[in-house]
Amino acid sequence: MLGRYYEDFTVGDTYRHPLGRTISEADNTWFTLLTLNTNQSHFNADYAAGTPYKKLLVNSTLTVAIVTGLSVPDVSQHAFANLGWQEIRMPNPVFVGDTIYACSTVLDLRESKSRPYAGIVKVFTTGFNQDNVDVITWTRSMMVYKSGHGPAAR
């Protein structure tokens, strides 16, 4: 099954998202350019060599984007509105060449009061690298269609 509708979620369920993503130098450079991030730690190897990590860091917002994307098939394939990301934490750095994986746990569910065709799903998501070291965590809420509703139901 690709994607869950509101009724398919149960508080406490954990989804190990099926895909991983290895981050290349090109990914990091392009994303940094697209977002106009001028911190040289992401694109200047000479500069990065003088930092505590001694090498290029992956742009943190690229990590957010990749982990969000990894979670889509399980938690937001049938969402029509992201309501927010809370408490984004980055306990460890991500470097070019790291492979990122993710898992999400359902924290809360509630039916929408204003949209009878939808519910609000809240999940806790963790992104981790190839060594199983957590690199990012957050809580995310989204508005998800109920079964039989939304564009896919047409």
Automatic annotation (TrEMBL):
Single GO MF annotation: lyase activity
UniProt cross-references to CDD domains, sorted A to Z: FkbR2
Transmembrane segments annotated in the record for this chain: none
InterPro entries in the cross-refs: HotDog_dom_sf, MC_hydratase, MCH/BMMD
A Pfam family assignment: MC_hydratase
Protein name (record): Acyl dehydratase
